[in-house]
Inverse folding.
């Protein structure tokens, strides 16, 4: 086994398949060793219309649906093997796809919606329930105050999924749960052939997509960093005029460029046959990363702002023509990155360069977690990413366990509405400050994109 392709272990029944992790998967593996960094948790409230139907959310029905889902997407039933501290492999045994192991399916009871939210928060930020031997699990929370509702929590390690994969998991599970029993048999070898990393998929022509939707998706992606930047400008201005920032820091912040980055769906850039046979929505990790740069924060007519002045409006900081100009700057950078003939190769090379860093952090975490780091002066914090984020996938029901010092802004459109969500490292960022920034991003989206309809923009912490 010399590369990330599947092979069958000889003379073993039930059949057992294995392959090495790809570069991106390996990076997220080392992330996961840092107390589950980058693990994702999807939540959904399911309501049954027939109160007399006692079987829908029962142990047998949930277990059957989860088993069917694992056979359709075998990485959900995989485990990891580490050899020599360096070589990490996926191992998929057929019997693990047929049966559930310890901790894989849990049924709990909560008394209120607030208690359900507290349970979710503990799963994301508490002791990690996932492990090398358990990469995906499902929790069903029954509500004693709403007998016709349950909360479904699907908890998955990031090295086997991404934004597209998360959407597929939840949609497919709910389809299976609500449909009559099916006799369809999934071919494990065919399903595993889809669960391969970009490393071994040859680049292909971009898959056909709905042009109008693609244009809107790109427009949101290009505008999001600009919205986030002008929102940050408002937060900084508010601090400065109220005396909460020194003159030295203000002069530094106002000149500092904005760096941002995040995941990009690589599926449309890869092998067309793989894409059309199911790779487009398969549950696996098929992402690269983009990096964008914007010039200094926009101050517009408020360039001479002084302590005690009124807070500038968005239009004073950034006119609509300048907003469009900055969005085009992002668009040009995106075009330069994504249309480069070696785009997928460059994406893989960047990942390789990051693996050693992720590994070092993961291995040293236990030794250093109780040793606070010395504070770094603002002017020495270079380079600093303003935030990460993406407009890929539906983040409306997702909780993300952030990397250290990460601030992640997600955007998606659901039922013709723009949904904004933010995740952050609570050890670094103040929740009130994050809330203030998110509200400013929402207001900026309303001003520049919403056409005067605030209800079209929804934000969620």
């Amino acid at each position: 086994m010399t590369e990330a392709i599947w092979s069958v272990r000889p003379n073993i029944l039930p059949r057992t398949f294995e392959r090495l992790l790809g570069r991106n998967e390996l990076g997220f593996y080392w992330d996961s060793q840092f107390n589950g960094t980058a693990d994702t948790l999807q939540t959904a409230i399911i309501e049954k219309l027939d109160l007399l139907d006692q079987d829908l959310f029962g142990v047998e029905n949930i277990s059957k649906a989860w088993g069917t889902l694992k056979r359709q997407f075998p990485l959900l039933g995989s485990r990891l093997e580490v050899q020599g501290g360096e070589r990490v492999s996926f191992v998929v045994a057929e019997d693990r796809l047929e049966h559930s192991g310890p901790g894989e399916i849990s049924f709990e009871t909560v008394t209120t919606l607030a208690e359900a939210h507290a349970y979710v928060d503990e799963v994301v930020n508490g002791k990690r329930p996932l492990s090398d031997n358990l990469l995906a699990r499902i929790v069903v929370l029954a509500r004693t105050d709403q007998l016709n509702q349950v909360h479904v929590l699907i908890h998955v390690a990031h090295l086997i999924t991404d934004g597209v994969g998360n959407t597929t998991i939840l949609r497919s599970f709910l389809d299976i749960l609500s449909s009559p029993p099916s006799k369809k048999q999934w071919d494990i070898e065919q399903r595993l052939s889809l669960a391969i990393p970009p490393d071994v998929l040859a680049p292909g022509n971009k898959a056909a997509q709905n042009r109008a939707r693609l244009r809107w998706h790109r427009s949101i992606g290009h505008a999001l960093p600009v919205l986030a930047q002008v929102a940050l400008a408002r937060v900084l201005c508010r601090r400065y005029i109220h005396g909460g920032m020194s003159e030295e820091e203000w002069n530094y912040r106002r000149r500092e460029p904005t760096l941002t980055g995040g995941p990009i769906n690589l599926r449309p850039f890869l092998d067309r046959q793989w894409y059309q046979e199911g790779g487009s929505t398969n549950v696996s990790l098929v992402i690269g990363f983009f990096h964008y740069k914007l010039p200094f924060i926009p101050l517009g007519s408020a360039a001479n702002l002084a302590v005690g002045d009124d807070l500038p409006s968005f239009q004073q900081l950034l006119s609509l023509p300048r907003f469009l100009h900055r969005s085009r700057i992002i668009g040009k950078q995106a075009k330069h990155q994504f249309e480069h003939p070696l785009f997928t190769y460059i994406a893989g090379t960047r990942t390789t360069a990051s693996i050693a860093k992720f590994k070092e952090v993961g291995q040293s975490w236990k030794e250093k977690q109780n040793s606070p780091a010395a504070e770094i002066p603002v002017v020495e914090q270079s380079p600093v990413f303003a935030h990460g984020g993406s407009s890929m996938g539906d983040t409306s029901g997702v909780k993300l366990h952030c990397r250290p010092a990460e601030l992640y802004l997600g955007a998606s459109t659901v039922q013709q509405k723009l949904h904004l969500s933010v995740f952050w490292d609570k050890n670094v960022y103040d929740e009130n400050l994050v809330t203030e920034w998110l509200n400013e991003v929402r207001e900026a989206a309303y001003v520049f994109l919403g056409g005067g309809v605030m209800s079209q923009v929804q934000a969620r912490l």
User: Anything to note?
Assistant: The longest strand covers residues 40-47. The first helix runs from residue 23 to 32. The chain has a mean pLDDT of 87.
